[in-house]
Amino acid sequence: MAPVSTNLDDPRFTAVGLFAEAYIGLTARFAAQFEEHRLSAVEFEVLMRLARSPGHRLRMTDLAGQTSLSTSGVTRVVDRMDRDGLVRREACSSDRRSSYAVITDAGRERLEAVLPGHLALVQEWFIGQLTPEQLAGTLESLRKIRDAVNPCATAGAGEPAVEAA
């Protein structure tokens, strides 16, 4: 068995460290802006996922796969957001064990209030730091890594929209 590398200058440490530092820095800048709109980062993520999904809805299991939440975690967040009127739960007509999270008009309004400031921060601290070529390469690389480590990240995104009864 080969010995474990103790080379602390290993570029793999640098790559993961830089990625983590960039992510932490961006999320810290976003958090203050979300708080101004009475949203957590997770609630913002849920609203964005639902707003960008076919029919503005996702099965709860797909929503868990697309977010940083477990199945029970997504249930707790959706229940809280349901009480706040930002999303609602709907039964799945084809599978009684499943339910959908659906963004409400109030959820869309809250999201629309957050987006201008959020996009300004994204532009200033992420997109604006890169040339168009660097951005294209970064997006390609992030998709490749995301697809490898989180193959469920796009679960439900390609499903046809289901009309509410």
From TrEMBL:
<dbReference type="InterPro" id="IPR000835">
    <property type="entry name" value="HTH_MarR-typ"/>
</dbReference>
<dbReference type="Pfam" id="PF01047">
    <property type="entry name" value="MarR"/>
</dbReference>
<dbReference type="InterPro" id="IPR036388">
    <property type="entry name" value="WH-like_DNA-bd_sf"/>
</dbReference>
<dbReference type="InterPro" id="IPR039422">
    <property type="entry name" value="MarR/SlyA-like"/>
</dbReference>
<feature type="domain" description="HTH marR-type">
    <location>
        <begin position="1"/>
        <end position="147"/>
    </location>
</feature>
<dbReference type="InterPro" id="IPR036390">
    <property type="entry name" value="WH_DNA-bd_sf"/>
</dbReference>
<protein>
    <submittedName>
        <fullName>MarR family winged helix-turn-helix transcriptional regulator</fullName>
    </submittedName>
</protein>
